[in-house]
Specification:
The protein has about 400 residues and is α+β, with helices and mostly antiparallel strands. About 40% of the residues lie in helices and about 20% in strands. The chain has 13 helices and 17 strands. This is 5-methylcytosine-specific restriction endonuclease system specificity protein McrC. InterPro entries: McrC (IPR019292). Pfam families: McrBC (PF10117).
Length: about 400
């Protein structure tokens, strides 16, 4: 069972100012910035139309990303309701006065249904009351009370009522029901609606204050948040490049020789995988993402000046060498800023490889985070390629 806590149903403006501690209590995260990370870490943005995607990516709706995505969901739902909803077969088990499908003799006998002239029947019903539409209905209900604008909340309630009138039961489907949902080749639009609902539900959850409603507590596990941070960086850079480059996470083996001993040793050497690698023409940027502190005291004097952790620098330097592939390679150590961080922005060259160390303050609004992510794509000598400077 997932841990829960009582939370309040505050407005979007007050919730957006709520900053909570995460990553072993060392990183401050603004809920509005967490929405930003969730949006770019999800697989929803690539499925949106260009105009819908630009609505999110331009940053004009950073003050209320939940409302912007809710607008997209409502527009798609209303368009879907103007067409014929998909129908499918759903297994039902009900007491009936006539035989339909097969008879469940055990339930009929144990519930003594024959005394009232009924029998328990299990049958397949052709209906629009599918788990996908029940999930959509419940998501619209959650959106209508999530503190979005009044007009949007009313549209969400109206769309939910329309689904009910069409025959969709207002009951939350189980995870098993959704997993067993049969998807056809013509169900791409419904798939996108379900994915968008999942993202909006994630955005409705993170509010860590006392209140009258019970919701799952957002994970404060550093590993889970680091994975979210890394996925958000990959998603954001993919859209920021707009086809001018590629973003991926390649794997590479150690460059052992061809001697017999090397072949034996190769079986025991682990593969190396970089967090994020960006290719822009002949340039390659190797990015290592860290969610925890990237600094610590010296080995012999922990009370002395705090320095970068040697393991992180060695890791980045090694990856820049392994993943160079004959390209002009640079490295970036990108970390979520902790409350005790004292490391300023660093630009240096290590054995001929240009490198950067940057921290992203997640307690700041999305505009600041966009600027930090955009800076990753700048060349070591920005004047050499001014076209790669991105607007915030």
């Amino acid at each position: 069972m997932r841990p829960t806590q009582r939370v309040s149903s505050a407005s979007a403006s007050s919730r957006a100012s709520d900053v909570f501690q995460a990553g072993e209590g060392s990183t401050s995260i603004n809920v509005r910035s967490l929405w930003f990370l969730l949006a770019y870490a999800s697989d929803v943005l690539p499925k949106l139309r260009t105009d819908e995607r630009e609505l999110i990516h331009k940053g004009e709706h950073d003050a209320d990303l939940l409302g912007a995505l809710g607008t997209v969901l409502l527009a798609r739902t209303e368009r879907r309701l103007r067409t014929m909803l998909s129908r499918g077969y759903v297994t039902q088990s009900r007491p009936l006065t006539r035989v339909r499908g097969r008879v469940d003799h055990l339930q009929t006998a144990s519930r003594q249904l024959m005394k009232s002239g009924r029998i328990q029947c299990v049958y397949a019903e052709h209906t629009v009351d599918l788990p996908r539409y029940r999930y959509l209905h419940q998501s619209l209900r959650k959106l209508s009370v999530a503190g979005v604008e009044t007009a949007l909340a009313q549209r969400a309630k109206q769309a939910a009522l329309t689904l009910e009138r069409l025959g969709v039961t207002p009951i939350e489907p189980s995870a098993q029901d959704l997993a067993r949902e049969p998807w056809g080749r013509s169900d791409a639009e419904d798939r996108d609606l379900v994915a968008l609902c999942r993202l909006i539900r994630d955005m409705c959850v993170p509010e860590h204050r006392s209140g009258s409603s019970s919701m799952p507590v957002l994970k404060r596990d550093e590993g889970a948040l680091r994975a979210l941070f890394e996925k958000a960086i990959k998603g954001y850079l993919t859209f920021a490049l707009r086809g001018r480059g590629s973003v991926h996470s390649p794997k590479e083996r150690w460059p052992l020789g061809d001697l017999p001993g090397d072949d034996i040793a190769r079986e025991f050497f682990p593969e190396q995988r970089s967090d994020v690698v960006v290719d822009i023409g002949q340039r390659r940027i190797v990015i290592e993402c860290k969610f925890g502190p990237i600094e610590g005291g010296t080995m012999f004097d922990s009370s002395g000046p705090r320095k970068l952790k040697a393991g992180y620098i060695r890791q980045l330097f090694t990856y820049c060498q392994l993943f160079a592939s004959g390209r002009e390679t640079s490295g970036v150590l990108l970390a979520a800023r902790t409350d005790s961080s004292t490391i300023p922005p660093l630009d240096f060259t290590l054995a001929g490889i240009p490198m950067k160390v940057r921290t992203v303050d997640l307690s700041q609004p999305p505009l600041t985070i966009r600027a930090a992510f955009d800076e990753v794509l700048l060349t070591p000598n920005p004047a050499a390629e001014p076209e790669m400077r991105l607007s915030a």
